[in-house]
Amino acid sequence: MDLQFERIQSGSHRHLQDLLGLYTESFPYEERRMTSDLLRMLNDQDMFFTAVLVEEVVVGFVIYWKFNHFRYIEHLAIFPAQRKKGFGAAVLQHLQREGKPLLLEVEIPYDSMSTQRVGFYNRAGFNALPVYYHQPPYRKGESLVPMLLFSDHVDWDAELLKVSTEQFQERVYYRYSRS
Coil, helix or strand for 170? Predict the structure, then answer.
């Protein structure tokens, strides 16, 4: 599968408006940023808002963050018409080729859609880590969101996982939600 990845670093990027629509449709309010906040972050050197294309057709996006010892996947979405074609799994495989463990949050399964999401990550080689986890709020004054913390590596040292989780929460959530 020949996927192309285009990093979006400008509010005028050719695919941004379509991908912002997919972003708001794919994630519940409490699990996503305000669009204005996301746009403000496009030039953050560690955050990669990346359009995923196949034969010049945009099929979805992935937002991920680079840390020294791991990668944190904040959001991954494929357009409904492009789902079940292997694109999401191919995005994960692409990120795995960097050789760093991947971390991501997945909502606790409560309906068929969330159960499918967990199944997707399980089939891609990800599993829930045995930790009690809450996603910090995207907006000041909102509540923590109970989630599962998933990784493609199950052999996390407890201290390294704690430090890594603190790193991505500080960088991804707290730095941008305090304003």
Answer: helix
